[in-house]
Amino acid sequence: WGLREQSTGLVASMEAAAASRRSLLGRVLGPGRGPARFRTRPRLAARVGHREGSDLSDAAASAGPSTSSSPSPGPSPPARATEREGGVPLWRRIFRRRGDLKRLWSTVGVINEIGEGLRLASNEELREKTNEFRIRIAQGESLDSILPEAFAVVREASDRVLGLRHFDVQLLGGMVLHNGEIAEMQTGEGKTLVSTLPAYLNALTGKGVQVVTVNDYLARRDADWMGQLHRFLGLTVEVVQSSSTQSQRKRAYDADITYVTNSELGFDYLRDNMVLDASELVMRSELNFAIIDEVDSVLIDEGRNPLLISYQPEREGGSYHEASRIAAAMRAGLDYESDAKEKTVELTEDGMMAVEELLGSRGMWEG
Question: What residues contact residue 134 under an 8 Å CB cut-off, 6+ apart?
Answer without folding.
Answer: 204, 206
